[in-house]
C-alpha cells in the first residue's frame, strides 16, 4: 500500500484497533490505510510519475483561470464573513446560567436540560470544517475541477481563520484509503491539488472513520462538506486463493449504509452537506442519503453562492 499511495501514518497496532472498531458488519474483514500522500515511500517511478501528472493537471486547471477562481474565493469569503461579526455578545442555551422558565418543560418532556442562558462572546465560538472528497475512479473526469472547488472552500475558510481539513477516500483491494491532504492547524489549502482519483469507494466506512477523527474536539461546532457523485461502489475483483469473494458493496446496500452513517453524524451534532457532482438521474439517491442538506453544483459561481449561504446559515444559528 505504501508503494501505491504513500507512507502510512499509523503503525500496525493502531490500525488493528481502528479496524476492530469500524470494520464490522458489512465492512467485516476489510482494512484501513491512512496516509498524507508522502511519495517518498513509492519506489516505482511509473506510479510516482502517474500521481505527479495528475497533480499537475489539477494545478494547471487552477493556474489557467487563476483570476476567475480567486474571485470565487473572495465572493465565498464575503458571504461567510457576514455571519462572523466579532466582539459582540450572544446568548446560548446551556446547562447553567440564567434559567428560562419557558424551557423547563423540555427537561420534563424530552430530557433536554439546557434550560439556562449563558452570555458568550462571538469570537469564543469555534467552528471546524472537514472537507471530504470521494477520490474513486468514477470521478476521474471531474478530478481537476473538484480539486479546485475544494481549494476555493478551504482557502476561503483559511483566510477567515476557520479551521478546516481536507481528506479524501477511495478503496483499493481490501483497503479503504483515507488521505489527509490538510489537517486543521495547517495553512496548506493548496494541498487540494494533490487530489487524484482511482479505485472504488466504500463511502459508509470512510465517512464513519473520518467523522470520528475530530471526536476529541468537542468544544467546536462541526461541519462536514462531502464531494460525492452518490455512487458508493466497492466490488472485489481479485481475491486470495482459498478465500471467498466478499459481498459487493453497491446498490441499495451501499446507499443505505452511507445514509445511516450520515444520520449518525448528525445525531452527534455534525452538520453534514453533500456537494453533488453526479447526474440528474441520481438526484433521488443524493436526497435519500443527505436529505435536504445537499447542493447540486454545476459551476464555480454556484459553488461560491450556495456553499457560502449554507455555511453562513449554519454559523448564524449560533449567533441568534
TrEMBL record:
Family matches, as Gene3D superfamilies: von Willebrand factor, type A domain
Protein name (Swiss-Prot/TrEMBL): VWFA domain-containing protein
Domain of life: Bacteria
Upper lineage: Bacteria, Bacillati, Bacillota, Clostridia, Peptostreptococcales
InterPro entries, A to Z: NorD/CobT, vWFA_dom_sf
Source organism of the structure: Peptoanaerobacter stomatis
SUPFAM superfamilies xrefs: vWA-like
Amino acid at each position: 500500500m505504501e508503494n501505491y499511495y504513500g507512507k502510512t501514518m499509523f503503525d500496525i497496532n493502531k490500525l488493528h484497533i481502528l479496524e476492530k472498531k469500524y470494520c464490522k458488519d458489512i465492512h467485516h474483514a476489510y482494512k484501513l490505510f491512512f496516509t498524507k500522500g508522502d511519495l517518498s515511500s513509492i519506489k516505482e517511478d511509473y506510479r510516482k510519475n502517474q500521481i505527479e501528472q495528475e497533480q499537475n493537471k489539477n494545478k494547471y486547471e487552477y493556474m489557467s483561470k487563476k483570476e476567475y477562481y480567486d474571485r470565487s474565493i473572495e465572493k465565498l469569503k464575503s458571504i461567510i464573513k457576514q455571519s462572523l461579526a466579532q466582539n459582540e455578545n450572544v446568548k446560548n442555551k446551556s446547562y447553567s446560567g440564567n434559567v428560562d422558565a419557558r424551557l423547563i418543560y423540555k427537561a420534563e418532556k424530552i430530557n433536554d436540560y439546557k434550560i439556562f442562558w449563558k452570555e458568550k462572546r462571538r469570537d469564543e465560538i469555534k467552528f471546524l470544517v472537514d472537507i471530504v472528497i470521494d477520490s474513486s475512479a468514477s470521478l476521474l473526469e471531474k478530478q481537476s475541477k473538484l480539486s479546485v472547488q475544494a481549494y476555493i472552500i478551504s482557502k476561503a475558510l483559511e483566510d477567515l481563520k476557520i479551521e478546516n481539513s481536507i481528506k479524501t477516500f477511495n478503496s483499493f483491494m481490501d483497503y479503504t484509503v483515507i488521505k489527509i491532504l490538510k489537517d486543521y492547524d495547517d495553512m496548506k489549502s493548496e494541498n487540494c491539488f494533490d487530489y487524484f482519483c482511482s479505485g472504488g469507494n466504500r463511502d459508509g466506512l470512510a465517512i464513519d472513520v473520518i467523522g470520528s477523527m475530530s471526536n476529541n474536539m468537542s468544544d467546536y461546532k462541526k461541519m462536514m462538506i462531502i464531494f460525492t457523485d452518490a455512487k458508493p461502489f466497492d466490488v472485489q475483483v481479485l481475491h486470495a486463493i482459498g478465500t471467498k469473494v466478499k459481498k459487493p458493496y453497491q446498490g441499495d446496500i451501499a446507499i443505505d449504509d452511507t445514509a445511516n452513517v450520515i444520520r449518525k453524524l448528525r445525531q452527534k451534532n455534525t452538520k453534514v452537506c453533500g456537494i453533488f457532482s453526479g447526474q440528474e438521474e441520481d438526484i433521488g439517491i443524493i436526497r435519500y442519503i443527505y436529505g435536504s442538506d445537499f447542493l447540486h453544483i454545476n459551476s464555480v459561481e454556484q459553488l461560491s453562492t450556495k456553499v457560502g449561504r449554507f455555511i453562513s446559515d449554519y454559523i448564524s444559528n449560533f449567533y441568534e
